[in-house]
């Protein structure tokens, strides 16, 4: 159902790789709600992914940008303002990657140049995106910036590996930059902490299948889907959440406040 919540709003959406991507679902929902946007992804991901199909469906243009490159980001922001005809109202940072996770390197045996690459892509890129927008004065007042995160930033999930540290860093950047963006430009910055979701990035985590079933059984409302995340993000981009900022918001069916559930207990008393 569409409520026209984003009518007239303009934005940039990072990270739509394929139809499973959280950013893909968000782009579709933003389009339904009347928002217009530029799609962006790393040049290599665009060759592998199906982003053209999404662009066509939503009437959007695509600008390639490696989110670790300040030059690419400057170009992206400048071009987006030209294409969209003015300043930006919303930005979704939906980017994550750990080389250690990808190559099966455990947390206790990190290859640090891989660790650094993962931190740059998954966390520091968020600072770079915001600094680029801030310096270019590219955000409209009462605009909204959202990044996606996971609860391993607060609690131990061993197989999440160095992504746990990257997410802790990402959430801290949201608060720290959110202060300056709020004070100087009246822009809000939040992170959504999402349930495990079957996407390319999600399924790269070791033991994902067991883990997603566990989270499902633990959460009173079940796991939040990519579509649930898209819908939550729409509310944060809309004018209905104008003074929500510096928050890490859990979209996880209640998982983060659970100790144990009947469904999980049942497995231990069989
Ligand atoms: P996905 O694999 O569809 O999206 C990850 C995106 O990051 C891809 O589009 C990829 O091309 C992009 N990316 C990687 N390196 C980049 C770079 N250098 N520059 C620009 N883009 C780059 O997976 P998903 O799950 O949709 O991931 C989106 C966000 O959601 C990530 O931040 C992820 O950590 C987060 N998240 C995912 C969960 C899950 O279980 N899938 C749970 C909680 C958070």
From TrEMBL:
Pathway, per record: Lipid metabolism; fatty acid biosynthesis
Any Pfam family: adh_short_C2
Domain of life, source organism: Bacteria
Reaction(s) catalysed by this chain's protein: a 2,3-saturated acyl-[ACP] + NAD(+) = a (2E)-enoyl-[ACP] + NADH + H(+)
Cited SUPFAM superfamilies: NAD(P)-binding Rossmann-fold domains
Group of enzyme by EC: oxidoreductase
Matching InterPro entries: Enoyl-ACP_Rdtase_NADH (IPR014358), NAD(P)-bd_dom_sf (IPR036291), SDR_fam (IPR002347)
Keywords linked to the UniProt accession: Fatty acid biosynthesis, Fatty acid metabolism, Lipid biosynthesis, Lipid metabolism, NAD, Oxidoreductase
EC numbers: 1.3.1.9
The keyword Lipid biosynthesis appears for this protein: yes
Claim: Lipid biosynthesis is one of the keywords in the record: yes
Family: Belongs to the short-chain dehydrogenases/reductases (SDR) family. FabI subfamily.
Name assigned to this protein: Enoyl-[acyl-carrier-protein] reductase [NADH]
Organism this protein belongs to: Psychroserpens ponticola
């Amino acid at each position: 159902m569409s409520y026209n919540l984003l009518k007239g709003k303009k934005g940039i959406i990072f990270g739509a790789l394929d139809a499973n991507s959280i950013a893909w679902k968000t782009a579709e929902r933003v389009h339904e709600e009347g928002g217009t946007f530029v799609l962006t992804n790393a040049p290599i991901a665009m060759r592998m992914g199906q982003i053209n199909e999404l662009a066509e469906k939503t009437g959007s243009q695509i600008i390639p940008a490696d989110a670790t490159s300040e030059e690419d980001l400057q170009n992206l922001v400048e071009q987006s303002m030209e294409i969209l005809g003015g300043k930006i109202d919303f930005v979704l940072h939906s980017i994550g990657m750990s080389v250690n996770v990808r190559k099966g390197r455990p947390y206790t045996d990190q290859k640090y140049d891989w660790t650094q690459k993962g931190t740059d892509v998954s966390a520091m890129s968020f600072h770079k995106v915001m600094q680029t927008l801030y310096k270019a004065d590219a955000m409209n007042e009462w605009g909204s910036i959202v990044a996606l995160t996971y609860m391993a930033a607060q609690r131990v999930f061993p197989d999440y590996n160095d992504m746990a540290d990257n997410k802790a860093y990402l959430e801290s950047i949201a608060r720290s930059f959110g202060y300056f963006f709020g004070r100087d430009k009246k822009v809000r910055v939040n992170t959504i902490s999402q349930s495990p979701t079957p996407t390319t990035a999600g399924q790269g985590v070791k033991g994902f299948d067991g883990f997603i079933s566990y989270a499902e059984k633990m959460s009173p409302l079940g796991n939040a889907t990519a579509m649930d995340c898209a819908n939550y993000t729409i509310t944060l981009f809309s004018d209905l959440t104008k003074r929500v900022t510096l928050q890490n918001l859990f979209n996880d069916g209640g998982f983060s406040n659970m100790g144990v559930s009947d469904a999980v207990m049942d497995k231990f008393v069989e």
